[in-house]
Amino acid sequence: MPTKLLVIGGGRIGGALVAGLLGAGWASPDELAVIEPVAARRSELAGAHPGLVVEEQVHPDLVQGAGGAVLAVKPDAAEAACRVLGAAGVGRILSVVAGIPSQRLEAALGGSAVVVRAMPNTPVLVGAGVSAISGGSLARAADLDWAESILAAVGTVVRVPERQLDAVTGVSGSGPAYVFLMVESLIEAGVAAGLSREVSRSLVVETVLGSAKLLAVTGETPERLRADITSPGGTTAAAIRTLEARAVRSAFIEAVAAAVERSRQLAR
């Protein structure tokens, strides 16, 4: 059966995409091929997905008839991988590699292949990610549709101009780390207030999960939902006042700005 998609790199993100595509019925195992140089990881992927084609390197039989490739390697290996893909005749790639502009990937591919860049975040590992996609100079609507169909198997997809991908990196790409830091802090606060660590963790995790669901389901603004539970002179008002006094809002804005600037530096 012809290969529908090549996945270059079988690490956490590449492996999550494979699992998501198979789970969503986007492809059958024998329609996907994963290129993974680490033998132990190849065995792990093959065992998890019977029938999946897992190879050490790209060869012509895999490329022939393939609809394209997902590039899910480390940034320092991306351009070398593109040169191999270009020489093998791959016509378009979806790159989930951070920090490498489409222009550089297009050049490494040989100048005639289509590139769509994406910035997913780590919740794709549980099918709840959010990814932003942007087309390179040769990409057309059909190419963006193709890329979106892949990433939609592991979460939500938005489309942005490539110049905004650094901002996406700062907000959603790094965003889970900000949330995890907040969760860590709230768990510690619960323990300090006398709760067991197990109970505190359960309360905090479910509170974060429920709050996000409330935002998503109601469509209300965060400002409105916050106001709804902040009674004048109450406990929440006292807590918010303390957070504002510590400039937490400004700290988040500055943190995102720092991540955006670092993303720009890495792309140079």
Helices, strands, pairings?
Layout lengths: L4 E4 L3 H12 L8 E4 L3 H10 L4 E3 L4 H4 L5 E3 L3 H14 L3 E4 L6 H8 L4 E6 L9 E7 L5 H11 L3 E5 L5 H9 L1 H18 L4 H22 L3 H7 L6 H11 L2 H20 L1
Helix pairs in contact: 4-5, 7-12, 8-9
In summary, what is this structure?
It is built from twelve helices and eight strands. It is of the alpha/beta class and 268 residues long.
Can you describe this structure?
Helices cover 54% and strands 13% of the residues. It has 268 residues and is α/β, with parallel strands linked by helices. The chain has two domains: 5-165, NAD(P)-binding Rossmann-like Domain (Rossmann fold); 175-267, ProC C-terminal domain-like fold. It is elongated, with a radius of gyration of 21 Å. It starts with a strand and ends with a helix.
- Which outline best applies? elongated
Helical fraction equals 40-55%
CATH-defined superfamily of the largest domain: NAD(P)-binding Rossmann-like Domain
Mean pLDDT over the full residue set: 94
The number of domains is 2
Listing every helix as H and every strand as E from the N terminus to the C terminus, the arrangement reads: EHEHEHEHEHEEHEHHHHHH
- In the CATH scheme, the class of the largest domain would be Alpha Beta
User: Which oligomeric state applies?
Assistant: single chain
Write the CATH fold name of the largest domain: Rossmann fold
CATH architectural group of the largest domain: 3-Layer(aba) Sandwich
